[in-house]
UniProtKB/TrEMBL annotation:
A divalent metal cation binds at H48, H126, H130. Signal peptide: none annotated. This is Putative damage-inducible protein DinB. One of its GO terms (molecular function) is metal ion binding.
């Protein structure tokens, strides 16, 4: 739950930078990597993270959604570009259209009454959850994964150290 717009802004800005790094590490070929046969792909999950900030327009925030709507692009660079746009647009919308009082107002979310500050917290956590799914699929696809909350196998090797198990 966020009680202050500035707290959300600071955290979302940090989180969107981490997500941008992950998005920028995607390749076109990697997008078809599936969680299990016939289920969501890496591209589906990445695009879900592009679409999800825009769900906040259902709570009255006004900003543009990604180009292409629900259709997952075949280009990793398009996904990364659209993510950067929409994640910054959400940030701008919250900072310019809501105030601290607005965070305490409740609205319907998935059939429940949630304070707007709680919905923003969910948005941050939801992104971290799917970003974690992405990095596993990216590793399985043979990609180098950027550091998110700490060092990766590759950065330990680069540092001349024994990677942690
Ligand atoms: Ni989701």
């Amino acid at each position: 739950m966020f009680n202050q717009i500035k707290d959300f802004a600071k955290e979302w800005e940090e989180e969107l930078k981490l997500t941008e790094k992950v998005m920028e590490a995607l390749t076109d070929e990697s997008l078809s990597r599936e969680v299990v046969f016939g289920r969501r792909t890496l591209g589906d999950i990445a695009w879900h993270l592009v679409l999800s900030p825009h769900y906040m327009t259902g709570l009255g925030l006004v900003f543009d959604g990604p180009e292409g709507g629900n259709q997952v692009p075949e280009s990793a660079s398009v996904i990364a570009k659209e993510y950067a746009k929409v994640s910054h647009a959400l940030l701008d919308a919250v900072v310019t259209q809501w105030d601290n009082d607005k965070l305490l107002e409740s609205q319907d979310m998935m059939g429940q009454s949630w304070k707007n500050g709680a919905t923003l917290r969910f948005t941050v956590m939801h992104q971290a959850h799917h970003r974690g799914q992405m990095t596993v699929l990216m590793r399985q696809a043979g990609l180098r994964i950027p550091e998110v909350y700490g060092q990766t196998y590759d950065s330990w090797i680069d540092a001349g150290m024994e990677p942690l198990k």
